[in-house]
Amino acid sequence: MPQWLSLLFIILAFSFVLLFSLIYLLRPTFMPYHRQGVGIEWEQLDERVRNLILALMRAVGFAWLAWLLSCLTLLALLWREASGPAWWTFAALFAFGLLTQALVAASFRARTGARTPVGLILIMAALGAAGLVLFGG
After folding, report:
1. Structural domain span for residue 10
2. Which domain of life is it from (predicted)?
C-alpha cells in the first residue's frame, strides 16, 4: 500500500484535531454541548464562571495543539526512517490523545445527556488507526 495513502488518513485525522483546537481557542462562548450539559445559557452564567470556562477551553485548545505538534514531529521522523520505537511511540501517543478525549466526551454525555462529539472523535481515531496500519503494512 502506498505511504501517501496512509499519510492522507493521518492528515485527515489531524485536520479535525486542528479544527477543534482553533474552535476552542477562538470561540467567545462555550460549545453547544457544554450548554446542554450545564442546562443554562452562556449569558446566565456568572462572569467569573464564564471566564473560568473560557480559560479551560483555551487550555484544552493549546493542549490539543501541543499534542498535534508532537505527533507531527514523530511522524516526520517516522517518514524519514521508520524505526520500531518511533512507530510505537507515535501510535501510543496518537491513540492515547484521541481515545482519552473520546472517553471524556462519552463520560460527559453519560452524566449530562449532552450531545458531545464522541462519534467525530472516534472517526478521527479510526482514520489515524487506518493510516498507521497502512503505514506499517
Report:
1. 3-136
2. Bacteria
